[in-house]
Inverse folding.
């Protein structure tokens, strides 16, 4: 938390705070690359979505 507050104070005292924030955003983007999400089977081919004959038989009986 101390580091964040020190950065905010330094950014506010800087002659070009917007430029400083832009360079920070660029550095963060370089360090933390976003990976594609694999949650909830996002973007995956699920194959056929039809019931199999054994499931049809089980549901009937």
């Amino acid at each position: 938390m101390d580091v964040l507050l020190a950065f905010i104070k330094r950014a506010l005292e800087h002659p070009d705070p917007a430029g400083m924030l832009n360079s920070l955003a660029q550095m963060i983007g370089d360090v933390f690359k976003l990976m594609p999400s694999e949650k909830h089977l996002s973007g995956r081919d699920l194959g056929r979505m039809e019931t199999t004959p054994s499931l049809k038989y089980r549901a009937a009986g």
